[in-house]
């Protein structure tokens, strides 16, 4: 039973190292330094390959940080907010770090002044900021609207609010339009902007269609 319980972690670690091997073998050399140094690899090409790997493995939810020997285990915002699978994310980050030759030592990377992380792991939100939008969708009485459908302009995929009416989306800095719809409510459309390395708080109030629906029923 013990060996079987370790199997998922072993498979994850093997996949991590396989992906890293694929990336390293695919990136062209700059001709500077040795294979063990970051300057040995073409940074732009490495970034492009990592994006391709991320697209091919969308369920493998990790963040790659070029040039930093540290493993992220979650990201949301500056205020630490536990996710239901927080223990799993911490475990995967810890196993990956301890399997690395020196990541688990928690030493800072060159040049001087770079941050160090205990055991080679950290909460990504405590390390650097993400830009995007977040907020709560409510009705006119201030009650949260769960399972409301939201869609950001120039994005094909839609998403839904939580049971508490919450939503969040990581976005690049820029100007966007948010469309919000839910059964029994009028659709709302709001324009908003996302600044550099900050989250825009955008709460949306939906207007009920009840009065109109009741009027239509009386007419019939």
Q: Could you explain the architecture of this structure?
A:
- With 220 residues, the protein is an alpha/beta fold.
- The protein folds into 2 domains: 2-127, no CATH class; 132-213, Immunoglobulin-like, CATH 2.60.40.
- Helices cover 30% and strands 19% of the residues.
- It has 5 helices and 10 strands.
- It has helices at 2-26, 43-56, 86-99, 124-127, 210-219, and strands at residues 71-72, 121-122, 132-138, 149-152, 159-160, 166-170, 174-181, 188-194, 199-201, 204-205.
- The strands form 3 sheets. Strands 3, 6, 9 and 10 form a 4-stranded mixed β-sheet that branches. Strands 5-4-7-8 form a 4-stranded antiparallel β-sheet, with no helix packed on it. Strands 1-2 form a two-stranded parallel ribbon.
- Helix 1 (2-26) crosses helix 2 (43-56) and helix 1 (2-26) packs across helix 3 (86-99).
- It is elongated.
- Mean pLDDT is 71; it is low at 1-10 and 59-78.
């Amino acid at each position: 039973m013990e060996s079987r319980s370790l199997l998922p972690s072993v498979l994850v670690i093997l996949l991590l190292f396989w992906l890293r091997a694929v990336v390293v073998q695919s990136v062209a050399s700059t001709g500077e330094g040795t294979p063990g140094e970051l300057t040995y690899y073409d940074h732009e090409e490495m970034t492009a390959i990592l994006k391709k790997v991320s697209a091919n493995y969308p369920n493998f939810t990790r963040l790659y940080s070029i040039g930093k020997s540290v493993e992220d285990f979650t990201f949301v915002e500056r205020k630490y907010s536990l996710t239901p699978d927080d223990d799993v994310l911490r475990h995967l980050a810890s196993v990956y770090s301890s399997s690395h030759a020196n990541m688990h030592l928690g030493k800072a990377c060159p040049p001087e002044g770079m941050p160090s992380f205990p055991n080679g792991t950290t909460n990504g939100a405590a390390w650097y900021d993400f830009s995007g939008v977040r907020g709560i969708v409510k009705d006119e009485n201030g009650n949260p609207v769960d399972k409301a459908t939201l869609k950001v302009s120039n994005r094909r995929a839609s998403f839904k609010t939580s049971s508490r009416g919450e939503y969040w989306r990581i976005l690049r800095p820029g100007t966007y339009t948010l469309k919000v719809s839910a059964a029994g409510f009028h659709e709302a459309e709001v324009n908003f902007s996302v600044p550099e390395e900050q989250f825009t708080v955008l709460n949306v109030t939906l207007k009920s269609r009840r009065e109109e629906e009741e009027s239509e029923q009386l007419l019939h």
